[in-house]
Write the structure tokens for this entry.
Amino acid sequence: MEYDISSLVEGATYRAGNPFEVWQWMRENAPVVHYDAGEFGTIWSLTRFADVKAVLRDADTFTSSSGILLRPVAQGGDPGGDKTLALSDAARHATLRSAVAGWFAPRNLRLLTESMEAAARGIVSDAVSKSRVDFVTEVAARLPLEVVWTFFDIPANDRAAVTGWSMAAFCATTAVERSMAHLEILEYFSSLAKKRREQPGDDLVSVLAGIEFEGRLLPMEEVVLNCDNLLVGGTENVRLALAGGIHSLIGHPDQWALLRDDFTQVIPTAVDEILRWTASATHLVRTARQDTVIGGQRIRRGDRVVLWLPSANRDADEFTDPDRFDLTRTPNRHVSLGSGPHHCVGVQLAKLEIRAVLQELTRQVYRIVPYEQAERLESIVVNGFRTLPVQLEPRASVRVLE
């Protein structure tokens, strides 16, 4: 059976939740294929783990500065091109990454662990007390937002408003609502960055506002775009992984019982399996700087290469029994958070946040059951749930304490 590979650039494919059959067919029959993707122009699609990882690690041959996501050709280039951490190369990328890397260093994260665990305890307690919640907005989204607001030192009086815009930007029903909320966030960051440049503090916005490249401060537009870049990267991956992970644990009750009843032994491998399985970033794009060959196919300078990360994570040449959700899987060298020079700078923070929420869920909750149909995002960019209505049945010890 031959599949329609053009469906991979249609949001409805991801809302239905099963592009994996298409990816499997491509891995087996057309792992490196050139085709017209309609409004997105002509692209190469890569679906095998080895090819995807090789491109991610080869920043000399493949650039990120021309854009890392599929955009309609009519919209022109990505406004963040060669301006943000995710969309820059070489010296600019090194400057931006070195400036923010200290915030995600192990020593700093160890200092944050206790406060993150306390925050997760409160978030899960609130959810358990309600019994029925939308896990996406009432649990999964909350801890990463709280951490980002701490890193950015968002004033306490502003946090409710900025959190509301962020929730809408990620989870609102319509594209117009999401876009309007995103504009509110950009406007807020513009005002905040100007204040921090004039009166810097000990926060990530002040760091970005103070970065110099080639002898001059970053233009304010670039500071704002980098704030937005870190907000999206610091919140979406965790929110989508947690929501997708819980949905998977509901569908695999044996794995939930394993995690709940033996958390300390299982958690060292569980987080990476959830990241592999959920793969919140559907794709990444790179542009060839020079002619090269991938999988026997000639890639020309200027060609765009689309890397389907969830497909790479299900490649049987890399993962034993890849379509099995196994919290004890090891090794687990997934590419959900990238690889090479652009490997997510906050990967350890993301893992700690996921761990903290899972720890509290296993401590406070005996069983998680859906009470309404979950809804997936209709997006070719991010893979996951817009809503996940669940009922949290508390452990007996929690019920007695209440």
About this structure: The first helix runs from residue 11 to 16. The mean pLDDT is 95. Residues 84 and 226 are 5 Å apart (CA to CA).
